[in-house]
Design a protein that fits this description.
- By secondary structure, the chain is an all-alpha fold.
């Protein structure tokens, strides 16, 4: 984004070079708010648990499975399970 800091740009480049996705925290937060605030008006948007929403937000912010697991204190396999639930919802 045009308003991003130099540090955020460097973080984005590092994530992409590491083979991960990068979405700015601002955009990730906006996406999470859309999911949380509009489930009744958008029947195709899944009802996710709080933990799934947290994993969704961290994924949207560009963190990979290992980083999310470390951040939440859970195993990478558990993060993958949450990813599958999110995809199937």
């Amino acid at each position: 984004m045009k308003t991003s800091t130099r540090e955020e740009l460097i973080r984005a480049i590092e994530n992409i070079l590491a083979g991960e996705l990068y979405v700015s925290p601002r955009i990730a937060l906006r996406a999470v708010h859309e999911v949380v605030n509009r489930p009744a008006t958008h029947p195709k948007i899944p009802n996710l648990t709080d933990r799934e929403l947290h994993v969704f937000a961290l994924s949207g912010a560009g963190l990979g499975t290992s980083r999310i697991a470390q951040e939440l204190g859970i195993s990478p396999r558990t993060v993958e399970t949450y990813h599958e639930h999110i995809k199937l919802s």
